[in-house]
Amino acid sequence: MSESTTASQAYLCVVCGFIYEAATGWPQEGIAPGTRWEEIPDHWVCPDCGAGKTEFKVINSP
After folding, report:
1. Under 8 Å CB-to-CB from 7, ≥6 apart: which residues?
2. 43-47 contacts, C-beta under 8 A, 24 or more apart
């Protein structure tokens, strides 16, 4: 992805439908609100189904 994630972007897991919102983060796993997608470790997986980051796609943008 060539653009940086902004706080209003969200990413959809195409496997299970889980949505990661940058503005909300995922505090349950230590990802603070406002954490851009690019800042999430590559080994992070979907908390619902275990899919890797490559299985997510942008669903909105500023």
Report:
1. 22, 23, 34
2. 46/13, 46/15, 46/16, 46/18, 47/18
How confident is the model at residue 60, as a pLDDT?
75
**Cα separations (Å) of 18 from 2, 6, 10?**
23, 19, 10
Q: What is the pLDDT of residues 32-60, one digit of tens each?
A: 999 999 999 999 999 999 999 999 999 97
| Residue 7 per-residue DSSP state | T
* pTM of the entire predicted model: 0.81
